[in-house]
Amino acid sequence: MPSQPYILILYYSRQGATRAMAERLAAGVESMRGIEARLRTVPPVSPTCEAVDPEIPAEGAIYADLDDLRHCAGLALGSPTRFGNMAAPLKHFIDTTSELWLGGALVDRPATAFTSTSSLHGGQETTLISMLLPLLHHGMVYAGLPYSEVELMETQAGGTPYGASHLAGKRSDRPLDDHERRLAFAQGKRLARLALALGHHGEEET
Q1: Residues whose CB falls within 8 Å of the CB of residue 206, separated by 6 or more in sequence, listed in order
Q2: Rounded to whole angstroms, how far apart are CA atoms 52 and 124?
Q3: Distance between CA 135 and CA 151 in Å, rounded?
Q4: Cα→Cα distances 105→70, 196, 202, 203, Å
Q5: pLDDT of 33-60, one tens digit each?
Q6: Phi-psi bin for 96: left (phi > 0), alpha (psi -120 to 50), beta?
Q7: pTM, whole model, 2 decimals?
Q8: Distance of CA 148 to the CA centre of its chain
Q9: How many angstroms separate the CA atoms of 66 and 103, rounded?
């Protein structure tokens, strides 16, 4: 019997802001009946090739593997901004997904992205667009945030039609405000609803 379908929320977080967003997306996913959220992260990368991170992180979500991606009903990618692009650890993981691309494992599954920056105009939208590109190569169906979410017109910090975002402040210690929390929740809920509607419950795990 197949397990309950899940949305993979795959993120990298250095200071905790992107992780807080991931948790709000997860709450939105799990507000929908019949689907659950699976939070996963990726290890940091190092310029010293010999550096090896523990297999299980000290706190937060465990590290993702390709099966987490292969069997998901939908995907949410989250990353802080690095010069208007996603962080290297998340990009490094995505670069290992060629076997899934070759087999078309993710074709027609819904996906979205979210990000956090230290400054208001720190590249939130370009980061989200950069995260969109590999999802399109995988044949996924991208779902942003529609303007039916009224917070998009009211926010004074994060929030874009390309996906949820957060202004963390220059010390990365500004918590999610109410608009940012609602938008992240709405994004997770929309992704779950689309996954259920499209009926892609992932490959049956053996």
Answers
A1: none
A2: 30
A3: 26
A4: 6, 17, 9, 8
A5: 999 999 999 998 877 655 566 667 777 7
A6: alpha
A7: 0.91
A8: 21
A9: 13
Give CA–CA dist 37/25, Å, rounded.
Answer: 8
pLDDT the model gives residue 205: 41
- Block residue for tokens 């044949």: 139
How far is the C-alpha of 206 from the C-alpha of 202, rounded, in Å?
Answer: 12
Residue labelled with tokens 């599954």: 109
Q: How far apart are CA 190 and CA 163, in angstroms?
A: 11
Q: pLDDT per residue over 147-189, tens digit each? A: 999 999 999 999 999 999 999 998 888 999 999 999 999 999 9
3-state secondary structure the chain: CCCCCEEEEEECCCCCHHHHHHHHHHHHHCCCCCCEEEEEECCCCCCCCCCCCCCCCCCCCCECCHHHHHCCCEEEEEEEEECCEECHHHHHHHCCCHHHHHHCCCCCCEEEEEEEECCCCCCHHHHHHHHHHHHHHCCCEECCCCCCCCHHHHCCCCCECCECEEECCCCCCCCCCHHHHHHHHHHHHHHHHHHHHHCCCCCCCC
Nearest to 190, CA basis, from 136, 143, 155, 135: 143
- 38: which 2 tokens? 């699976």
One-letter amino acid at 133 equals: L
